[in-house]
Design a protein that fits this description.
With 405 residues, this protein is mainly alpha-helical. It has helices at residues 2-21, 26-42, 50-74, 76-94, 100-125, 133-152, 180-186, 188-200, 203-215, 222-232, 240-255, 257-264, 274-280, 285-311, 314-325, 331-349, 362-404. It starts with a helix and ends with a helix. It comes from Mola mola.
Length: 405
């Protein structure tokens, strides 16, 4: 026994002596190796190594599909129940009768809510980078409803989902007579659904960190590594971002429900580690999700919604256009397309679709291209993130093989 123990200790002592001769302790060597591996993973992007990145993306996708299939099989009772409910709804949908009116109403509301919840999840869940769906979809939607309400003097145009364009009702009120609260009520459903989606997007890191803390296993996540590094550097942190993140972490950990609610209720770019923090410190699920849902879907969404509505109210928009015209030299040339765009939108509001010829405006063309570029970048970031996850699998597999030798 003693001989065996001594023989096992010899390689470790030789490895430690070698590291000391190189001026490195075992801990520093491990950290250096992890840093190098992290740099290798982050260098795997589609614009540098396209063939390898796409190959690893496909392999990681197949692994994820296999894992999800296994998880669905473990919860086959729930899957069967969902399939039965969908089958009953399909039968009701295709069967003639008076109930068709209610089925169509439920379908319309469900798809509308699912659309905005999905956009909210895309904005929050990450996968390398979030798709900023508030700037691309919800914000412009609220702005268009606001401009239409002030122009029509009413919010009685069709309930969501809207047709291809909003048209003022025939019995519209006096132009500009609509109230701020009426506009907020008009866009409340989609805004709250989007906020609920962002709250749901915070759940994966929470469950990952919670499972890692309970099992003691090392989680396979870059954000969790950043969180652990932040905790290690807590004492000597000097930069503003690290100190601010630590402040959010301390508030969430010590204040609990109201701390999470306060951090989730304001536009807070530092909330990205809140799910990991709550999972790591074993904050109860309903404390975390309840506070996040109330903060993001109700409080924060009303703040953001109010800001967009005020910013796009009729008199402020006109003042902004006039300010653009007052810019020396380039002002009039910049003011013209904005004025033309607003005039075209006003004309559309007072005519049914197709009755007014519309000319392509460069502002709408630029916005469409910006949306397209951001969506493409989001897709590319998913490909890069999945390929990097597969690279980490290979690195972990290599480490486990080295340990067994």
């Amino acid at each position: 026994m003693a001989a065996n123990g001594a023989s096992c200790e010899q390689p470790q002592k030789r490895a430690g002596a070698k590291e000391k001769r190189n001026g490195k302790t075992p801990d520093s060597a491990v950290k250096e190796r992890r840093q190098k591996e992290k740099e290798d993973r982050l260098s795997l992007v589609i614009w540098r190594r396209p063939i390898t990145t796409l190959h690893y993306f496909v392999l990681e996708t197949l692994i994820k599909l296999n894992e999800w299939t296994f998880k669905l099989w473990q919860r086959r009772g729930t899957v069967v129940l969902v399939l039965v409910v969908c089958s009953l709804f399909s039968i009701a949908y295709y069967t003639e009768g008076a109930h068709q009116l209610y089925v169509e109403y439920l379908e319309k509301k469900f798809l509308w809510c699912a659309y905005w919840i999905g956009l909210g999840i895309l904005s929050s869940v990450g996968l390398g980078t979030g798709l900023h769906t508030f700037l691309l979809y919800l914000g412009p939607h609220i702005a268009s409803v606001t401009l239409a309400a002030y122009e029509c003097g009413s919010t009685d145009f069709p309930e969501p989902p809207y047709p291809d364009q909003i048209v003022c009702p025939q019995d519209a009120g006096v132009e500009g007579s609509v109230s701020l609260f009426a506009i907020m009520s008009k866009v409340r459903l989609e805004a709250c659904m989007w906020g609920a989606g962002t709250a749901i997007g915070e759940l994966p890191p929470y469950f990952m960190a919670r499972a890692a803390r309970l099992s003691g296993a090392e989680p396979d996540d870059e954000d969790y590594e950043e969180f652990e590094e932040m905790l290690e550097q807590a004492e000597g942190a000097q930069d503003f971002v690290t100190r601010a993140k630590l402040g959010v972490q301390h508030m969430v950990q010590k204040v609990g429900f109201f701390g999470i609610l306060a951090c989730a209720s304001i536009p807070n770019p530092l909330f990205d580690l809140a799910g990991i923090t709550c999972g790591h410190f074993l904050v109860p699920f309903w404390t975390f999700f309840g506070a996040t849902l109330i903060g993001k879907a109700i409080i924060k969404m009303h703040i953001q919604k109010l800001f967009v509505i005020v910013a796009f109210s009729k008199h402020i928009v006109e003042q902004m256009v006039s300010l653009i015209g007052s810019v020396p030299k380039v002002g009039p040339s910049l003011q013209k397309p904005f004025s033309q765009y607003l005039e075209a939108q006003r004309n559309k509001l007072h005519h049914a679709g197709g009755s007014v010829p519309t000319n392509e405006n460069w502002l709408s063309w630029v916005f469409e291209k910006v949306v397209l570029v951001m969506v493409c970048y989001f897709i590319i970031s998913i490909v890069n993130s999945m390929a990097q996850s597969y690279t980490k699998r290979l690195q972990q597999q290599r480490h486990s093989e080295e340990k067994t030798k």
